[in-house]
Amino acid sequence: MTLDENDKKILALLQDDFPLVSRPFLEASEKLGIPEDEIIERVQKMMDSGIVRRFSAAIRHRKLGITANPMCGFKVEQGRVREVGEKLASFDEVTHAYERPAVPGKWEYNVFAMVHGYDREEVEKMVEKIAREIGVNDYELLYSTREFKKTYKRYS
Predict the structure, then answer these.
(1) Which residue range(s) make up the domain with 127?
(2) pTM: predicted TM-score of the whole model, two decimal places
(3) Contact at 8 Å (CB) between 57 and 122?
(4) pLDDT digit string (tens) for 19-51?
């Protein structure tokens, strides 16, 4: 799908705070001068094509008291990376999972998953369970101690 100028305007507007009203696309329509039904149609096409994946709330987990937030590094044999990554991504406790190259002799972990919890004991039990289920025993937890910035990629 190729985006035209109206698609770009819609994306630029929708990436900001989404209004909690009964007809949020009507507000977008009034701001952009594009009919509401056309905006809905365009957004649906962008979702169908994968350009827009979802609408969601951004939760500030630290403000909720969720302060045990480690990145878990797993040492996974190359032939199992896809399988393990897909399993990790299926856990509700995992907010994101990805592969990064290991650095032989310095950092052997190549598959990562971010998890969040209220305390370290809770998180460590959670990760032990995940490790058992994915069949990987060699892992390391890297806890964040401070959050400097929290933003999301913006389309402009």
Answers:
(1) 63-143
(2) 0.69
(3) no
(4) 888 998 999 999 999 999 999 999 999 999 999
